[in-house]
Design a protein that fits this description.
- The protein is of the alpha+beta class and 423 residues long.
- The protein has two domains: 2-24 and 236-421, UDP-n-acetylglucosamine1-carboxyvinyl-transferase, Chain, CATH 3.65.10.10; 26-233, UDP-n-acetylglucosamine1-carboxyvinyl-transferase, Chain (Alpha-beta prism).
- 33% of the residues lie in helices and 21% in strands.
- Strand 4 (68-71) and strand 5 form a beta hairpin.
- Helix 1 (26-38) runs parallel beside helix 2 (52-63), helix 1 runs parallel beside helix 3 and helix 3 runs parallel beside helix 6.
Length: 423
């Protein structure tokens, strides 16, 4: 299946893009779901993301004895049970689901648990997370379609761990969530962490569930036994908003996006400052509506260490910019759902620009124009590469293979995108 990418050629020169409503945050939703399962009692969540990644988390929690029910837009989570699975857990391609669940299951699970999912899920790094769990008595048996986890014989009361988090901050997040459910909590230490802004996001959500975690540059103190059920509204997704905010920059028009939380700790909120620095006007309208007005006046010079998932969308936008760009801090992109660093370079070339990958962390981009007919762009079954292609297609057209891959985090993306353009 393929899709002819919608573009802005039918719009009048001064016409604004139509407002875009984005779904809930995957990062917040999966953190809130597992905290709700860990907190003894009944939690109610509103505005959660309805997508593949969060569906796998909800189904896994239900299979582990913490059912998630839905009524009138509210998810109700029965938390506090020790996890036990009578059948294999299917986790799809969701890295957050696997990495957030794994420490809890390894330290508190009852009986062996079979974990299954897309092949790419188990190709992504897990060793630095498994090492401390195995030192505490858990066992990991890889198989042809996943792995079998044997939990530690007796749960610890407290964690005192030094973790190699250079490949993913999700290792630390999973351990912090598990520590919060232990009687005495714990302290996690590290030398370097990938995407450290996500640790601040986890701390924000620990606080919302009653755990007064304290985050320092290389240490995290997590009090134990303080988690409590909550009644919460979940924020909109800055990651899902990125392509829409970039659309205003690409087309030189105005666009209002909502709902977004200006105080959200999610790292992708950095896009506001990145677009401002490149010449866009960015203004908050009320408490949840963000308005961006393009066009870009220059290329990007941006360090994305705290927000590497912005890399693909910014690469697609950089191919349309009036000058060259350099995106740094991308060393985790090859370890995502696909090798997003190489895929982003491929997208830039498909859009007519030039792209140079420098080491494993930098992408240098010069804009250009596509020559002649182009093949379909293959997003490699990666939702963020599809979002990035949509941005580039606003000015370059083209055809996208497998547009349905956006269902991982934003099932209604194409409907909202074409509505934004008035198509």
């Amino acid at each position: 299946m393929s899709l002819r990418l919608p573009d802005d050629r039918h719009l009048a020169p001064a016409e604004a893009l139509r407002p875009a409503s984005i779904p809930g945050s995957k990062s917040a939703t999966n953190r809130a779901l597992i905290l709700a399962a860990l907190a003894p009692g009944t939690t109610r969540l509103r505005g959660g993301l309805e997508a593949e990644d969060t569906r796998w988390m909800r189904q896994a929690l239900g299979a582990l004895g913490c059912p998630v029910t839905e009524a009138e837009g509210t998810w109700t989570v029965a938390g506090g049970a020790r996890p036990k699975a009578a059948a294999p857990l299917w986790l799809g391609a969701s890295g957050t689901t696997l990495r957030f669940l794994l420490p809890w299951l390894a330290l508190r699970g009852e009986g062996a648990i079979q974990l299954e999912g897309d092949p790419r899920l188990f190709e992504r790094p897990l060793g630095p997370l498994l090492a401390p769990l195995e030192a505490l008595g858990a066992r990991w048996e890889p198989g042809s379609n996943g792995a079998r986890l044997h939990p530690a014989d007796s749960p610890p009361r407290r964690l005192e761990l030094t973790v190699d988090a250079r490949l993913s901050s999700q290792f630390l997040t999973g351990l912090a969530l598990a520590a919060a459910a232990l009687p005495e909590g714990g302290v996690l230490r590290w030398t370097e962490a990938a995407s450290p802004s996500y640790l601040a996001l986890t701390t924000q959500w620990l606080h919302r569930f009653g755990c007064g975690a304290h985050l320092e540059p290389r240490a995290w103190t997590i009090p134990g036994g303080a988690l409590a059920p909550r009644d919460l509204d979940l924020p909109g997704d800055w990651s899902g908003a990125a392509a829409f905010l970039a659309a205003a920059a690409a087309t030189g028009r105005s666009l209002r996006v909502a709902p977004l939380d200006p105080e959200d700790a999610q790292g992708d909120r950095a896009l506001v400052d990145i677009l401002r620095t490149a010449g866009c006007v960015v203004v908050w309208k009320g408490t949840q509506d963000l308005e961006v007005t393009g066009p870009l006046l220059r290329g990007f010079d941006a360090d994305l260490t705290d927000c590497p998932d912005l890399g693909p969308v910014l690469a697609g936008l950089a191919a349309l910019a009036p000058g060259s760009s350099e995106l740094r801090g991308l060393h985790t992109l090859p370890l995502k759902e696909c090798d997003r660093l190489e895929a982003s370079a491929e997208l830039v070339r498909w859009l007519g620009g030039t792209a140079e990958v420098v080491g494993d962390h930098t992408l240098r981009i010069a804009p250009g124009a596509p020559l002649g007919d182009r093949p379909l762009f293959n997003p490699r079954n990666d939702h963020r590469m599809a979002f990035a292609a949509a941005v580039g297609g606003l000015r370059r057209g083209g055809e996208l293979l497998d547009p349905g891959c956006v269902a991982k985090t934003f099932p209604g993306f194409w409907e909202v995108w074409t509505r934004m353009l008035g198509c």
